[in-house]
Amino acid sequence: MQKTQSGAIVSVVGLVIMATLFLHELRYYLTTYTVHQMAVDLKRGETLPIHINMTFPSLPCDVLSVDAIDMSGKHEVDLDTNIWKLRLNSDGYIIGTEYLSDLVEKEHTAHTHGDDKDHGHHEESDEKTHLHGFDQDAENMIKKVKQALFSGEGCRVYGVLDVQRVAGNFHISVHGLNIFVAQMIFEGATHVNVSHIIHDLSFGPKYPGLHNPLDGTVRILRGASGTFKYYIKIVPTEYKYISKEVLPTNQFSVTEYFSPMNEYDRTWPAVYFLYDLSPITVTIKEERRSFLHFITRLCAVLGGTFALTGMLDRWMYRLLEMLTKPNTRSGFR
C-alpha cells in the first residue's frame, strides 16, 4: 500500500471524527432519561406541605395574616406555625424579623371579616370600643401601622404550611384585624393594596426538571385594589432516581382570576390560593440505556466512519493520480 500525504490527512480527520462521535455516544449512554407512568392515587391520611415565599411591598407585617380552610371543616385563622415575616423598607431591604409559634385553630362554621366565632367573647367589648374610642393597645397599633404605611414598609412572608390532603384554600390578607381597627388604618377596603410577588410556591420538594408555574409571578396594583384568586390543580407525583431513591412531591397547574373592588363591597382584598387534588398520581422514573445498546450504536458509528474515510482515501488517491499522469508524460517529451 502506497503512503500518500492525502491519505494521512484523511486518516487524521477520520480519527478526530471517530473520537468525537465516541465521546458523544459515551455521554449519551451515561445520561439518564425519564419515563412517565400514571396510576390511581392510593395515598390516605397524609399531610400536604405548602411552601410559601411571597413579598407584599405595600402592606406592613403587623396587618398580614395567613388563614387556611379545607373541605373537612378545619379552619385555621392567622396561621403562625412555621411562618416567618420579614419587615421590608421601601427599597426592599430587611429591617426586622418576626416569628410566632402560637396557632389559633377552630372548627369552621361561619367566617366573616371581623365577626369570627373565636372572637365572640370580645364582640360586645369591640362594639363599645368602637362607640367610645379604642383602647390604648389598639391606638398604638393604629399609629404604628399608619407610620409603616407612610414610610412605604412592606412584608415578606415565607414558611411551610402542613394541611390535610383534601381540597381547600389558604389566603393572605388583613382578615386577622378587627374590622374597626382595619377601617381606622386603611379608611376603606379599596385602599388595601394587595400587590404581591410570588418568589416560590410549591407543594413539596423539587425534582430535576420541575417547573412551578407561579414562581416569579409579579402582580402590582396601580389603581383600585381587589382580590386575587389562584385556582390550583395539584397532581401527586413520585420521582424515582436511578439510585432507587423515591422522592414524593407534587406538581400543579394554575388559573388566575382578579376581582376588582368597589366602594360598596363588604369584603376586604386578599390573595387566595384555592387548591384541589387530582385522583391520578404520576410516577417519573430515571432510567439508563442498556450497555448492549451502547455497544451496537458505537460499532455502527465507528464502523461507518472508518468505511467512509477509506472510500475518501481511495477517491483522493485516484484523483491525484489522474492529475499527475499528464504532467509525467509531458516531461518525457
TrEMBL record:
Belongs to the ERGIC family. Residues 108-130 are annotated as: Disordered. Residues 133-313 form the Endoplasmic reticulum vesicle transporter C-terminal domain. InterPro entries: Erv (IPR045888), Erv_C (IPR012936), Erv_N (IPR039542). This is Endoplasmic reticulum vesicle transporter C-terminal domain-containing protein. It comes from Nyssa sinensis. It holds the Pfam family COPIIcoated_ERV. Keywords: Membrane, Transmembrane, Transmembrane helix. Residues 2-76 form the Endoplasmic reticulum vesicle transporter N-terminal domain. The chain crosses the membrane at residues 6-23. It is found in: Membrane. GO terms for cellular component: COPII-coated ER to Golgi transport vesicle; endoplasmic reticulum; membrane. It is a multi-pass membrane protein.
